[in-house]
Design brief:
10 helices
Length: 273
Amino acid sequence: MPIADGVFLLAFSILPSLLRLYWVLCTMAAVLALLPLPGLAGFRAAVILSACRGKLVDMKPHKAFGPLSVSLLALCLLEVHLVRRYLETVLIMQYPPNARMHGIAYLYGISYYLVVPATLVPLALLQRLADGGLESLLGRGAMMGALPSALEATLARLSALQWLGVLAFVAGNLLQLHSHRLLANLSRGTQSGTYRIPRGGLFELVSCPHYLAEIVIYSGLGLLIGAQRPLAWLILAWVAANLVLAAGMTQAWYRRRFPSYPSRRKALFPWLY
């Protein structure tokens, strides 16, 4: 066997374990950063850098088919979400000319969007790659033409819980789009770098409805594919832990900057936190 083929097969054989380890470590890091434990200042600073976004960047210390067709549906939904976020970033959001992102957050973002799709791929496909290499898929190119009908059949077979996941995914995207539009409207007609208190929508209840929407989106993916890919729940655990951390910092930032900030407005979850 050529060395390149051997390396390829080895990489795909250990990929499931590496994906599991990635999400466990990410989630544990965010949870530890939330706990007031002594001696973790440097570690907490590094984790906070991955959670810093937007206005918080200045707070940095000196993220055959069968089960395969469900995975394809989840990957298609994820692609819709990412395309929506790209268009939203380019066409709707308003960023000041001096906006910047820390290198740690940038590198983590790249790794995140490489790992998430790989996590949603079913183990059977990864095993097929490990056993037969890339040719085991390339040799099945004729199957690609059957994907639309396979996805249509998948929709017909979805359970009530999986349909709930699809609806949660759609609702989360709509909530996030609406919240981002409200944030973008705050920046229009104001001086660069000027912030105002967000109003309207779920901003009346929480400081970060766009973060809440992200959690709803990944909860939907978990309900859709969690039975086939339990690792999807680890993605949700990491997203939730990371955004709880970011929302808490955002809430504190608003309260420091605006003495009149609504005292009853929670950080992330209405009436709870």
